Records
---
Amino acid sequence: MKLLIVEDNIELSSDLVNFFTGNGFLVEVAYDLKTAQQKIFDYSYDLVILDLGLPDGSGLNLLREAKANKMDMGFLIVTARNAIEDKVTGLELGADDYITKPFHKAELNARVRSILRRKNADGNNLLELGNISINLMSFEVLVNDEPIELTRKEFDLLVYFMYNKNRVLTKESIVEHLWGDHADQSDSFDFIYNHIKNLRKKLQKVDSQGQILSVYGMGYKFTEKK
Amino acid sequence: MKFKAIRLLTKTTFIYLIFISVAFFTTAIFVTRSTNNLLYEDTEVYFKHRERRLVSYIKDRDKDLDKVNGLVRVEGNTSILADNYPQYNDTIMELNQMDGPMLHRGKTILVDTSKGRFLYTMYKNINDFDKFHSVVLHTIVNTFVVLALMLTLFSIFLSGFLFRPFHQLLGLMSRYKIGDNIKLPKVKTSTSEFIKMQMLVQNMICRIEGDYKKLKEYTENMAHEMQTPLAIIRSKTEVFMADEELMNQYASAVKVIYDESTHLSNLGSTLNLLTKIENGEYNRVEDIKTYSIIQKHIETVKEMFDMKHIQLELDFDENHTLSLDPLLFDVMLKNLFKNALRYTPAKHHVRISTSNGNLSISNYGEPLSFDSSKIFNRFIRSQNDTTSLGLGLALVKKICDLNHLNITYDFADHHHTFTITPEES
């Protein structure tokens, strides 16, 4: 999978390049609108992670051009928080999703994978780790080929963990993923513990090879049992 | 002391009327005095002439004074009388049958002769003078009444016609909203003051719009530019978090950096939202049916209430509406729910109601640890609350203020209640 990261901040873009390269993507970067325009016309990408505030213009112009030229690459818009107009305009112009800064890389990763999966509808809709298999179309979870019953939140949580296996996920990141804009409703994120506990119990019950580990003071990590 | 507001033209007319009445009153006094003086001088000349003739007549008829018509002898101690004369009196009398009764002025003098003292009274017809006097006074009063009437009518005419451009300008100014970036339509007028005022208003609007644009750009740039460094901080801390060895040593420090960058990000974005609301950027006002939107919010957050074993008591009127931008209603609800969830102790209840045209959210809780009048101020929070931004209720208040909604806070019987009511038009 080939990604183009359009972000003018060198530190952030290099972090993202390292992150996605480490996740098996082929990544290129453009620091301004002009370079990004050249790149999307010269090469083919599966997804463009597009920051809107670029030094030589709005990232929306790139999106407009791509859609006007019927390019079928996916677009994930990165906006400053609360720039609702940008989000609405971006989605109306044909962007696949948006994420607000500052974002959790795990969340970005989940969204990138989700877009790529939707874009390649004829492709694989299965997410697998050890003996766990998730069908993202039918919302079915199999462990050792046996279906297990999960609530919607538990299902979303498991998918999020699977997308970000072996990575520490903070409670904030998990809450934001599950509750979106309502994530900050509560003063404590401890309530996700119930979901973690239930999911953990259900996975253990069927001898799942995936396990949720607690990382003290930070959050949780999903790993494959050795 | 509070003065009642009066229109400028009414005020100037009233003051002008006071000045005119003072001027006319002074003129009336002056004219009265002048005519009286004229009357006095004229009658005095006549009386002096009569007196001289009387004296020479008395000298000629010295021997037979009792037969002189009008002479009255003064008996007794005559020395006392000398100080009281001459005496004047005005009386109506008929000296001539042809003319009928007329006003006369009489002058009684004391005449000393060798045969004793006599009183003599002379009369002069002052009827014409009196008429002249009253005609002048009538003229002054009538002129004043006509002038006052004319002035009042003229003032009404002026306010309706000459001041029309002024009122048009006021109307345009009152309808102007910051951010409209409008050029005011030109008001037709040939009055130089109004032309100048129109220019000044237009210039002022240009300056306001310029400042507003700069402020908007500043807040937007701040929001964007601040989020990128915060994204880098978060990204770097996530790199640390992925390193188990490093985390064994510095977990708490990394967590603090992570939490504080999140707090800063939330603070920046909430302040940015507050500024945008204050600047009137969310002005897509609609009549919102609150029922379905509140239900949707409850569905999303119910789980969080359930986890604290907080019971939700709901009383909805399906026809309840509020007029504001749907996005702002969303922000308002989110913050009110957040407030209720945060400050309701576990195993208690929250009441949400939209009956009687009001939207009210009430939750069980301990009394506030600060003055309740400050509850809608920015950065006000309970003593033990370290995680809240202290901006939620300030946001709600600002949204209410800008959308003609009243929000009240009340604490009674261990219940904190926020009630939102549309302002009476």
---
Amino acid sequence: MTQTVRICSAFTRTSFLEMIRRKDFYAIGILMLVMVAGAGTFGFFGVRGLSVFVRDVAFTAIGLFSTIFAVMASARQITEEISRKTLYPLLARPITRWQLIFGKWAAAWVISSAAFLAFSVIGIALLTVFSVPVTAIFLQYLILKIIGLAWLCGLTIALSLYATPAAAITLSLIICFGSSACGRIVLLANADHPMSTFGLNVAYSLLPHYDYFDLGAKATYAWPMIPWWVIGALLAYSALHGAAMLLLGYVRFRSQPI
Amino acid sequence: MGLALGSGWIAHLTLPVQNRQPDAAELGEQMEQSATASIVGGFRSTVSGYLWMKADEYLHGGAAMRRLTEGEMRRNDARLASTQSPDGSDPVQHHNETSEIPHPNNDKRLGWGEIERSVKPWVDPKNHRHVNLRETIPLYQFMTWIDPTFVSAYVVGAHVIYSSDKSKIGEVIAWLHKGVQASPKSVALQTELGRYLAEAQGFDEAQNCLRSAISIGESAQDLTAAEDDALQDAYRWMILIQRKLNNKISEREYALRALKRFPNDPIALHTINPSYGR
């Protein structure tokens, strides 16, 4: 266990340095800043009172760019080690393949969460400058998103072991942004032609639910905080589903010739 | 948002054509010949259309509504959407609408339903309340700033401003004047402006606007359903103003003109035959 923790922290340190060295984090941060600042400056053009709209843009930008960053960071974790051939010296050390996958997932999750928190700080700073308040639900928004990023990193790392990095990124983004639509389609189909309770619940459980980890809409409209059991349930979903994804990735990685 | 800002700024400063109603023949040609006008025009219509959908979402605090499916209409088992009346009278029914996320009574998902209703904005569709209408006014201002020819935004925005505070009728009239300036050939805008001028007792100016609306409507080849409804309203308002001013001859004249286009209009029929409807 101690060794696993040491491995995870070593990978995380390396990934942080990588994140600072690469330009994509700064590019995404600047894009987010421009987007939210643009929305907030409409007051200068005589369109005042757009606080809900500015919050909407801010939370959309934070969610969107955090997701993109997490997917890109996760897809690179193992595939870059393979392409640069740095995987061989890594596996020559007393590190098992599952520790490698787990460590890479932990690194991806930590840097994605750090990026998300950085974007949130930028967003909140801009909202404060424009005198747009946020309510207490914002805290739950942060917690739930970080839990969601853990699931997302697991999914993307698993996909990166079955497909090329570009395909893994594309599939992950489709799953993330399409998860809400998939749920809607199942519900509409059920509304039109009712399914059995068992069938509906099986169908719904198999679908990805990344959209459930985003409290941005509620934070935008200043809804009250949600029950904490919901966050607990989603934590359990993220842990089980994410672990299943990583296990699938491990099965592939274990049998993969390097 | 930067692109929306840019497109609106370009539209206002460098492309005067963007500030005019794009249904004139020469404007259509200009749109085809000028790539910038075409691209910017397409983009701003998309942004203003997006904001139009957002305004409906804002009214419900983010909760999404949807139309009933055919299966639901057949079975008649959906929880229909209705809005509480501010004065406590019967709720206002939405036509064949329900919430996108099902009500617990209609939701066979076990824990998933509760989770979704917790993490996403959701209201019981039956007898729900709208948020303070005034909060949506900046959105309509934004829509018309991006697209000065967005007629529906002016019409609905005027209604929202007036409903939220009836003392703001001067603001409503100024708002509609801007709309008419950008879309002088819009029957709906001329009618709405005439209507609010009449409410403010400015009957002379109201009549001018309503006469314009009727003249445009009568000479138009093909009106949309919304513009057709607005033309009918224009006739009605004109009839009511003439009745208020005791101009019996004009009242009858406009009633006859209305009946040529709308043979079943009750206000026009009542003017010609006072025993109608009794």
